[in-house]
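Researcher: Structure for this, please.
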Amino acid sequence: MGLFKKNPFGHILFLKLWLIRILGALTHRRFKGFNKLEIDGSEILRSLPDTNVLFVSNHQTYFADVVAMFHVFNASLSGREDNIKNIGYLWKPKLNLYFVAAKETMQAGLLPKILAYAGSVSIERTWRAEGKDVQRQVKMSDVSNISKALTDGWVITFPQGTTRPWKPIRRGTAHLIKKNKPVVVPIVIDGFRRSFDRKGLRVKKRGILQSIEIKQPLEIDYDNIPVEELVEKLEYAIEQHPSFLKVIPADEIKSEEELNKEREWRY
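Model: Predicted structure, token format:
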């Protein structure tokens, strides 16, 4: 790797390499120390192509979710089976790994800006800005940047666009899938909301079991599937379809709602 070689977004790969190494070393204990991370399905990652792979996941914190995925992905690609033991996997991380995030989130402070350089594809949300509901048109440059990232490698996206559970999936994700025809891999996470604050920077509680389940790629008829049907397929895949609420105990739903109210008060 050349010292000044850049990715399609103009980021120097040598600098990105060291950012991932340093941030990975600093955050490893959050998933293998303070708390335990249970991983299922990591072997699937090793069978995926090197580019045009889209990971769709539910969302629980701004940053901890994607940091954990960076650990899991690189550990698996280094031959580890459902674990992140021995951080030697950070020495040769996958540099063409990106995640989609709100631009205002990634510009809110020095640390988010550093994380953005490590792999963010920052977009302007069309439905929310500065804590308020808005309505604005999709920026074609944002769509183009996600497509560019898919062409270069793997992209993680959180199609609900919020850390609140059971919110509907944005139709833009379905349009993106139909346009780029990526391999779509669902991921279901849990435990991050209980162990971290909303931003995912501060450890709120220790001894929490966190989990990441990587599922088999979805079978999608890209040319013929209606957008509405694809949206529903994604909701089921990441276990955020409203029907899942029927099988969750009422006390757990109530606890989740109280936690969301507490977050609103804090943030």
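Researcher: Any notable elements?
Model: The CA atoms of residues 62 and 211 lie 16 Å apart. The beta strands are 36-40, 53-57, 97-102, 120-123, 128-129, 132-133, 154-157, 183-190, 209-214.
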